[in-house]
Every structure is written in C-alpha cells, then in structure tokens.
Write a structure and sequence with these properties.
There is one protein chain. The protein is elongated and about 70 Å long. It has twelve helices and eight strands. It has two domains: about 170 residues, NAD(P)-binding Rossmann-like Domain (Rossmann fold), CATH 3.40.50; about 80 residues, no CATH class. By secondary structure, the chain is of the alpha/beta class. An eight-stranded mixed β-sheet has the order 3-2-1-4-5-6-7-8, with helices on both faces.
Length: about 300
C-alpha cells in the first residue's frame, strides 16, 4: 500500500483536530512531488460547528486555516484519501458508523480516539467492512504545547506505511506492532498510571499548599527524576509484596492528615484499600524477600487478582 493522500478529512475539530490541521497546513499542504501540481485539500467534520460560542470558534479557526468544515457527514467525505478521527472515545463507534457509508474504497482511517483494545476492534470491523484501511493510533501525550508533534503509537497491518507518511508529514509516529487495538490498549493502561498520579497529586499539592509546604514537597521528588519514572514504578511494584502492610498502615495516617488539612482523602483511602488487599489475600512473603518484577506480578495475578 502506498499512502499519498491529496485530500485529508479531519473528523472532530477540537484541540486535537485543530492542532493537526495547523501542522498539516504547514508541513503537508504546501509540499508536493516535483511536477505534481495537484491541489492538496483539508476538510473537516464537527457536529458542534456553529451551535454555540465554541462552535463558532471552530468555524473561525477552520476558515483561518483554509479547511472546508461541515457539521454533518456529507458526500464531501467521499473525496478523502485519508481520514483522521479525533473525537472523544465514547463517540468513536458512532463516528465510524456515520462515516462508513461515505468512504472511498481503500481510504486510510487513522483512529486517534481514546478507546479500549476491544473498542478499537469494533471500530476496525466497521471501517474495514466499508472497504477502508483501519490503523489504530494512540496519542501518548498532549497536543497542548506540542501540536501535531504529540507522540503517537500505531498498530495494525498497515501501521508501518501510515507511520512513514505521518513522520514525513510532520508527525511523531512509532509503530507498536501489527495487532489492531494494541496501541489503544497501551494508552488506556498508561492512563491508569498517569491519571491516577494526577488525582493523587491534586490531594497532595492542595494539602501541601495549605500547610505552606508545596515547594518542599515538590523538591523531595528528586529520587523519581534520578531513577526514571518507569523504573521507579517497577521498583515500587517489586517491593509491594514485602511492604504492602507497612505502606497500607501509612496511608491511614495520610488520610488522617489530609482530613486535618481539610482535604477529603478520596484517592488516599482507595490507595489504602488497594495496598491492604494484598495483605488480606495472604500474599505477603513470610521470608521478606523481594522478588523480581515478573515473579511479583505472577504472585499478584494468582493470589490477589485471581
């Protein structure tokens, strides 16, 4: 498969769609092969267009970028050689089903929506059933500040071809593998960590600020910077079986301190429960020996999450 689109359709013109449109307007639309003078077009579909103040701004930004935007799924979508779907994950299937009857055979469909692996498989079936080529794309960072350069993981049989075109057109894309849905699964599993840390940071930083200790608390996180976040988390999991009891008891005091500061310990109380369930499952090793990560995860799988 060769990917050389002349018309790109963006479904969803929010933060992601507009960031991608800005990038493509600069890096792709003005570029062409020597002797190829065929025009390159950007079109967009967003159901919020002109419905309210935000919808009006979408239209203004589209016109500024010379993007032909419409509110509905019209015949214009048939012109697209490449479709980039960038809507909230709960609407991903609706978008695929609405676009499917209008797809040109062989159109490449980049699904940037945040969905689970199983949801991506459902979206793929709709697109491929209509003759399209589905590529699972997981955006692994924020478009805010990075724009089109937000890092992306791609998965599927045609992920390599899509990634080559994307990188040549100003994106930052890497291929995860040939299995559709795996990129989306990685993103959702990453979100377990990142969004959980965000919620915990809110509790900690609000309480720290109220006590006049925000700078000190932020300053004591240097060990994570030194070790690297991934390695730090792996070490925490490796030592979890041995220290689950002590750590869960510490969270009782954490919750108490937060209440004294006027911060409801929602995340901290849940952390206590998550740590203590290992103790309740009898998974704490009697010999107090820290096991390697893979062995630790096997014990947790068999004893705690059975």
């Amino acid at each position: 498969m060769v990917l050389e689109p002349l018309t790109i359709a963006l479904i969803g013109f929010g933060e992601a769609g507009t960031a991608i449109a800005r990038g493509l307007a600069e890096t792709w639309r003005g570029a062409s092969r020597p002797g190829d003078n065929r025009p390159r077009k950007l079109i967009a579909v967003d159901t919020a267009l002109d419905l309210d103040a935000r919808g009006s701004k979408l239209g203004e930004e589209a016109r500024r970028l010379d993007v032909a935007i419409e509110r509905g799924y019209t015949a214009a979508l048939r012109d697209a050689d490449l479709i980039i779907s960038a809507v909230p994950g709960e609407f991903a299937l609706d978008v695929a089903q609405a676009a499917a009857p209008l797809l040109k055979k062989g159109v490449v469909y980049l699904d940037l929506c945040t969905v689970t692996g199983a949801m991506a498989e459902t979206d793929r079936a709709v697109i491929e059933g209509a003759g399209g080529v589905y590529v699972d794309v997981a955006v692994m960072g924020s478009f805010f500040g990075r724009g089109q350069k937000a890092p992306m993981l791609l998965a599927g049989p045609n992920a390599q071809t899509a990634a080559e075109w994307m990188n040549a057109s100003g994106f930052d894309a890497k291929v995860l593998g040939p299995k559709p849905g795996s990129a989306s699964a990685v993103k959702v599993l990453r979100s377990v960590l990142i969004k959980g840390v965000e919620a915990l940071a809110v509790e900690s930083f609000v309480a720290a600020r109220r006590q006049g200790l925000l700078e000190e608390v932020m300053g004591c996180l240097g060990d994570v910077d030194h070790e690297g976040f991934g390695q730090f988390l792996a070490r925490m999991v490796e030592t979890h079986l041995v220290h689950a009891g002590r750590r869960s008891e510490e969270m009782v005091l954490v919750a108490r301190m937060l209440r004294e500061t006027g911060v409801p310990p929602l995340m901290s109380e849940t952390t206590y429960k998550a740590l203590h369930r290992t103790v309740e499952a009898g998974a704490v090793p009697a010999d107090g020996k820290v096991r390697p990560l893979e062995e630790t995860l096997a014990v947790l799988t068999d004893r705690v999450f059975r």
